[in-house]
Each structure stands twice: as structure tokens, then as C-alpha cells.
Design goal:
The protein is an alpha/beta fold and about 180 residues long. About 20% of the residues lie in helices and about 30% in strands. It has an 8-stranded mixed β-sheet. Strands 2-8 form a two-stranded antiparallel sheet. The chain is globular and about 35 Å long.
Amino acid sequence: MGKVIGGMAISLDGFASDRNGSVEALYANFEAFIDTEYMQDQMKSTGAVVMGRKAYDMASGDYTGYEFQVPIFVVTHKPPKKAAKGQNSKLKFIFVSEGVQNAVMQAKAAAGEKQVTVVGGASTIQQLLKAKLLDELHLTIVPVLLNEGLRLFDKLGDNPPALERLRMIDSPAGRTDLIYRVVK
């Protein structure tokens, strides 16, 4: 089975969104980021995706042209009533109401030997870190300061996981990708 990898863009001061819940400042040059060797490699090696409901809702129900063309397991207590646009024979949404552990279990089965990529949101990554279900954490540090908002590393409890840096990659627009192994 492949690894479970949590990926998220954060500001230089550690925020996953601004005080209004927007991630726009973190993805201002998203097209250039998608074209990087790093992201192309991530898309090729991903067999399934796990995401939280807030991350799912950010696309407003339209996943036409979404970068990961694999089954996506959305952790939610309340599945949407309307099907997302853009689903096809590869990209399909499975709504999981039994928690992140169940979503990861289903995603691993769907991914086979490929990795499971967790694309957010912050709460989902926090839950997976606390449950010791992430093998790696991939952070894209964007050179902006948001000053306030939703912090990625809040709510990890008194015993946060140890991280071991594996790699650092310079990306377009001054971004830096940091890849950590989650020490278990």
C-alpha cells in the first residue's frame, strides 16, 4: 500500500486561510504551481484523495478539470444533495460520514499501490495527525503574511507529532515546498 500524504499551502506565518476563511492569497499563482515538476509528480503518484467538507465546498460543486482525476473521499456529516460537476470514470466522489479513519481506509483500498493524498482542509489534516494516520506532510509555504485566520497546527493537543524534514523544493512565485516524514 502507498503512503498517506497530507498536503496544504500555508502562509509564512502558518495560516491555512485568512480571517474570512479565504485561501485566495495562498493560491494566487495556482496555474504556475500546477505546472511544477513537484505537482505533476504528485498527480501521477496519487491513487485516491481524502478531503474535508469545507475543502470540497470551495469548488462550489464544480470539479471540471480538477488536477486529481481519482476517487475522492470527502469526510462529512452531511453529503451534498447535488452531484458535483466534472465527475467521470476516474474522478468520483464518495462521501464518508464515519470519520477520517474510515475515509483513509477506503481511500487506501481504492489507491492500491499508489499514495493517498489529503488535500485539506486544516481540520482534516489536524485529525489525521492526531490519529497518526499521515506518513508525510507536504507544506507549500507561500510568501505572504496573513496575520490572522485559521492556523494549520492548532488543535494538535499536548503531544504533537514529531516531523523529520525529507526535502525542500523552490517553486514558482517564491513558494517553498517542504516535505516531512511524520515520525510515529
